[in-house]
Design a protein that fits this description.
twelve-stranded mixed β-sheet, Udp-n-acetylmuramoylalanyl-d-glutamate--2,6- Diaminopimelate Ligase, Chain: A, domain 1, alpha/beta, about 15% helix, UDP N-Acetylglucosamine Acyltransferase, domain 1
C-alpha cells in the first residue's frame, strides 16, 4: 500500500512542508527510517534523528522548529504521537480488511453470516451460528453451535468458541483464546472420588473487549460468565465459571480468577495475581502484580498489594520492616545477650 504525503495530511488534517507527492509504503522509527518510510517525532529526545533520518515523510508537532536542513517532507499536526497512532489504526484496518469464505473452511447450512465476512482456511462454523457484518475469522478457528458474534469482531487463528456463547461488537480475540470451556466443577463422593458437575451456562463478551493470546474464559455452571464493555485482558489469563468483570477493567498476564467472583468497573489488576472465588471487588480497585486476594474489597478505588493483599501503603511500610528483619534480629540478640550477661554478673 502506497500513500503520498498529501493523502496522509488529508487524513490527519495536517500541513505539508516539503514535497506533497512524496510516497511512503511502510512505517518505521525515526532513528531507523529509510526511503519510503513514514515516521513521527513527538519526544524531543529523538530530535537529532530528524536531521539524519532517511525517511521520506515525518510527522511533527506544530511547535517543532528546525535548526538544520531536513531532507524529509514534514507533516505538521497538533499532536504527532496521536496522529501517528491514528495512522497505525488506519493501516491495521486496511491490512485486516479481508473478505470472502475460503473453500477449505466448513460452514453448516443453518449458520447465518453477515456482509463482508471473512472465514479463513480450516475454520469450522457450527449449526445455528449467527455472525454479524464485517467479522473476520482467521484460519483454524472453531465456532460451536448457537454461537452469536456481532459486527466488526476479529478472531485471530486458532480461537475456539464453544456452543451457546455470545460475542459482542468490535471485539478482538487473539490466537489460542478459548471461550466457553467447562468450568472447574467437581463434587467429591463418600469415596473422595470427584464427579463432574455439568456446566450448562455460557460466556458473554460484551462490546469493545480485547482478549490476549491463550487466555481462557470458562462457561458458567448455570447462567453466564460475563465480560463487560471495554474490558482488556492480557495473554495467559484464566477466568473461571460465573465470574463477572465490570466495564473498562484491565487485567495483566498470568492472573487467575476463581469461580463466581465479581470484579467492578474500571479496575486495574497486575500480572500474576491470584483472586479467590465467591468474593466481590469494588469499582476502581487497583491490585499490584503478584498479589493474592483472599477476601472481598468493598472500598471503591482502594489500592492493595501483597501475597495476602492489603492496603498498599501498609504493605510498603511492612516491607521496609521485613527487609530490616536480619538487622533487627541481630540487635535483639545483642540486647538479649547483654541482658543475660548483666543478670549473671548481678547473681555473682
Amino acid at each position: 500500500m502506497k500513500f503520498t504525503a498529501k493523502q496522509i495530511a488529508e487524513i490527519l488534517n495536517g500541513k505539508i512542508l516539503g514535497d506533497p507527492e512524496s510516497v511512503v509504503n511502510s512505517l518505521a522509527k525515526i532513528e531507523e527510517g529509510e526511503k519510503g518510510d513514514l515516521c513521527f517525532l513527538a519526544n524531543i529526545k529523538y530530535t537529532p534523528f530528524i536531521y539524519t533520518t532517511k525517511a521520506s515523510v515525518v510527522i511533527v508537532n506544530k511547535d517543532f522548529e528546525s535548526e538544520n536542513n531536513i531532507t524529509a517532507t514534514l507533516i505538521v499536526v497538533e499532536d504527532a504521537y496521536h496522529s501517528f497512532s491514528q495512522l497505525l489504526e488506519v493501516y491495521n484496518n486496511m491490512k485486516n480488511d479481508k473478505e470472502g469464505i475460503d473453500e477449505q473452511s466448513k460452514i453448516e447450512k443453518s449458520a447465518e453470516l453477515g456482509k463482508k465476512v471473512f472465514v479463513g482456511a480450516f475454520s469450522y462454523i457450527g449449526k445455528n451460528v449467527k455472525i454479524g457484518k464485517n467479522v473476520k475469522i482467521y484460519p483454524n478457528c472453531f465456532i460451536g453451535e448457537n454461537v452469536h458474534i456481532a459486527d466488526n469482531s476479529i478472531l485471530y487463528p486458532s480461537v475456539k468458541i464453544y456452543h451457546d456463547c455470545k460475542i459482542g461488537k468490535d471485539n478482538i480475540l487473539h490466537s489460542g483464546v478459548v471461550i466457553g470451556g467447562d468450568g472447574f466443577g467437581f463434587s467429591p463422593d463418600n469415596k473422595n472420588q470427584f464427579n463432574k458437575i455439568a456446566q450448562i451456562g455460557n460466556v458473554v463478551l460484551k462490546n469493545n473487549t480485547e482478549v490476549g493470546a491463550n487466555t481462557t474464559i470458562d462457561r458458567a455452571t448455570m447462567g453466564s460468565t460475563i465480560i463487560g464493555n471495554g474490558v482488556k485482558l492480557d495473554n495467559l489469563i484464566q477466568i473461571a465459571h460465573n465470574v463477572e468483570i465490570g466495564d473498562n477493567t484491565v487485567i495483566a498476564s498470568q492472573t487467575g480468577i476463581a469461580g463466581s467472583t465479581k470484579i467492578g468497573e474500571n479496575c486495574m489488576i497486575g500480572g500474576q495475581c491470584a483472586i479467590v472465588g465467591h468474593i466481590t471487588i469494588a469499582d476502581g480497585v487497583k491490585i499490584a502484580g503478584q498479589s493474592g486476594v483472599a477476601s472481598s474489597i468493598s472500598e471503591k478505588g482502594k489500592i492493595v498489594q501483597g501475597p495476602m493483599a492489603f492496603d498498599i501503603r501498609d504493605f510498603q511500610r511492612s516491607y521496609i520492616i521485613f527487609k530490616k528483619l536480619p538487622e533487627i534480629y541481630k540487635t535483639v540478640s545483642e540486647i538479649k545477650k547483654a541482658f543475660l550477661l548483666d543478670e549473671r554478673s548481678k547473681n555473682e
